[in-house]
Specification:
This protein is an alpha/beta fold and 212 residues long.
Length: 212
């Protein structure tokens, strides 16, 4: 592609069909260069009629290999935090703002290290997220981390300012209620992991209360 301005998944998004059709179409997405190095597209999964949709940043190494979101350590921690907050993970729909794993390697054949997607790459993936929101029609969106927040709410988003609060915003043409919190991977990286985990659970309890 000539420039980042040309990045968009729009031509690859089917005009009709359900989540299965979306997932199948996303497997062939070439809307930005991230597909070149990733193993596969990692689309959203979960309850097609979920009351809550959780949106993270992008797939990690294990997610890229397995083709499912939130199946690595961060996903296991998220499931535990959801259950503790009173949200059944089986009743949720989980996805990412960016559907391909972006990474770097210090040397060939070395471990793949997560690299944050650019704002433009997240914007390019926006049509997939818009289609997921339109089909699932969640009552509440839990925004996991800064990258997802900026993809949904713009570059001025700061997770530390609004975490654990219920926001009402128009997202991709739909009025949505959102509860931002940190990404579970940030909990795993925290010096005081227990305090960070309690903070995540506290934010998720706000989400659980908003669903009542």
């Amino acid at each position: 592609m000539a420039s980042e301005d040309a990045y968009t998944a729009e031509p690859f998004v089917p005009a009709r069909g359900g989540l299965t059709a979306l997932r199948e179409a996303a497997a062939d997405c070439r809307g930005c260069p991230l597909h070149r190095d990733a193993t596969q597209t990692v689309f959203g999964t979960g309850n097609a009629h979920a009351r809550v949709m959780l949106i993270g940043e992008q797939p990690g190494d294990q997610e890229d290999r397995r083709g499912e979101p939130f199946v690595g350590p961060a996903g296991k921690l998220l499931d535990r935090a959801l259950a503790e907050a009173g949200i059944d993970p089986a009743d949720a729909y989980v996805t990412n703002a960016v559907k391909h794993f972006k990474f770097t390697r210090a040397e060939p054949h070395k471990r793949r290290v997560h690299k944050s997607p650019t704002r433009r790459e997240a914007t390019a993936c926006g049509p997939w997220l818009a289609a997921e929101l339109a089909l699932v029609e969640p009552e509440l969106v839990v925004v996991l981390g800064a990258t997802a927040g900026k993809a949904l709410l713009g570059s001025s988003f700061r997770v530390t300012r609004v975490r654990g609060t219920v926001l009402e915003e128009e997202i991709h043409g739909r009025p949505e209620r959102l509860v931002p919190t940190v990404h579970p991977s940030a909990v795993l990286r925290a010096d005081d992991r227990e305090t960070a985990y309690r903070g995540l659970v506290s934010d998720l309890k706000v989400a659980a209360q908003a669903l009542k």
